[in-house]
Amino acid sequence: MYKIFVDTDVILDLLMKREPFYKAAVELFRQIELKRIKGYTSPLVIANLHYLLSKIYNKKKSIELLTELLKILVITIIDGETIKLVFEEKKIKDLEDLIQYYSALERDIDFIVTRNIKDFPKTDEIIIIKPDELVKIMESDKDRP
To answer: Which pTM was predicted?
Structure first.
């Protein structure tokens, strides 16, 4: 079973039905609900989502949406060790994405699913992938014996 970290933009695609990205986000979360993949996100993503959803809807609706989301996603840990790893990096392109990368790395995540690939580090440890690309991989895996 793949372990995936879901970034803010993909969750917003789902919750706000943003086209043309909604279909891939729905399929990704369907796979999580069916327990074919295990979904993770970070406390940082939850905080960012709450801020954005509170502006779009209101705080009560934001909490309702996030409460439902947390029924199927596991939250990674961001602690002092995570932050130390981030600051040991030679080049920090995007601090927030690097924090998320290291919180995912500590959980042995296979894929970080985002539409913002360019700001994540290029490594062999975790594959950074767009939602529609992961959906295609999962569909091809279904066809294997």
So the answer is: 0.92
